[in-house]
Amino acid sequence: MARKSALSTDKLKGLGADKLAQLVLEEAERNAGFRRQVKAALAGQTGPEAIAKLIDRRLSGLERAKSYIDWDKARAFRDDLRSLTGTITTELGTASPTLAMDRLLRFVATHEKVFERMDDSSGSIQDVYYQAISDACDLVEKLSSADADLLPDKIMAALGESSHGYLADLTRAVVPHLPKDTLTRWDADLKAAITERKAAEEKRKSDGWHYSMTSQWSEMRQSIATARGDLDLLIALEAKKHAHMQDTLGIATKLLEAGRTADALDWLRKPGQRAYGEPDDGLSPDQVRLEARILEAMDDRRAAQALRWRCFEARLSAETLREYLKNLPDFEDMEAEEKAHAIALNHASPETALQFFLDWPRLDRAAQVIVAHRHHWDGRDWHILPKIAGTMEHDHPLAAMILYRALLDDILTRARSKAYSHGAKYLAKLTLLAVDADPARPNGMTDHATYLAGLKKAHPRKAGFWGLVDSDKPNLSTSSAARRPVWVREER
Q1: What is the pTM of this model?
Q2: What are residue 477's DSSP bridge partners?
Q3: Each residue's pLDDT tens digit, 198-248
Q4: What does DSSP assign to residue 360?
Q5: Is the CA virtual torsion 415, 419, 425, 426 positive or negative?
Q6: Is 482 part of a structural domain of the chain?
Q7: DSSP per-residue string spanning 151-181
Q8: How many domains is the chain partitioned into structurally?
Q9: 394 lies in which domain range?
Q10: pLDDT tens, 101-141?
Q11: What is d(CA 390, CA 396) in angstroms, rounded to the nearest whole number?
């Protein structure tokens, strides 16, 4: 097949101005967003003010709109927003970064009204706003020093009372590119605003929970402190948060990087944020890896290694074990690895042990776990078991058979008719795997023929499933040159 010729600027120029103009005109008639981009490009010939005027008209419409956006119009609306931000950042941004930044801030400020008009559970509209915030980084670098100095006031005017979180996101994006004097002044303004707002909130009687902008303003101060390299201020602001909201790992990392190891260890061992469902036992793999680094920086290598090993025993973290083995003296790592594998094989949670051996990777040991706990696997884990079974098929057919049986049994037992096609596929795989898996069966596990007979006896009336099995039944023949049977479809 001949390759399609790729489009390029030079090739398009070869079409000539008339042909290109005709193509642009035709596409503009079909695509409203493209038509607006073309109009902006034409307006740009007379100066950035003309582009800004077109953008202002669209922003005004976005700010005034109140009608609900139905799901079938959400994609077109998203594309229209992308077209708008594209015009701001490319057409106007090239001509006048200052005017473009003003319009971009105005656009980001529309998010609250937009989210009131639609269901954005997919997050596609949020992505447009996040991209606009990312684009602000490029624009701020193009601003003059005078315009950059005015940016904090413009941001606060546009988004200073926004509760969605984009204010803090935008601040985090732009502060690395602002002058240090500007950051100092912005921090002072935020500090004063926080003090004033807290005083007003304390006087106001409240009958319950209410959102306070002070939390977002404090987060902005932390972004500014990071940009200024003011670690002490960053830590002081973090310490004012509730214990369960403190980013202890983040602060400890920064302290370690600054060489303040004792402070880093204190912060790391404080109660703070942790992953959902993670026990508060100090043995989270992320926390342990960081604490071990701190201990090594404090010349306490023995304690670091002991901590890594305790973490492995509790969590079976492959990454933690790798770090432990890497820091052992020569020739001791192989013995330690075998000891670790023995611990994993006897772990109380088969799922945890299986995941460890998949991550290591040791598929033979993973298969050993599957077979040893063959009655444990639940076909309701359809989002992970098929992939694992597929990994096992070639070298560990018995383990694959166990998982495919669990999946198929669940489908038929719960009469999941929408999954019957998957069930038929699993049964075909089981037929293939039986050639090698049946001889390796442990005591008490039925062979494939008996298993199939049991399925037919237990689920004789599931015609939808058996119809799929019988309608696409292949003929099985074996080849002496291949380890696996070869599927040969019958001529029809």
Answers
A1: 0.75
A2: 486
A3: 998 888 766 666 678 999 999 999 999 999 999 999 999 999 998 888 999
A4: T
A5: negative
A6: yes
A7: HHHHHHHHHTT--SSHHHHHHHHHGGGS-HH
A8: 1
A9: 389-488
A10: 999 999 999 999 999 999 998 899 999 999 999 999 999 99
A11: 10
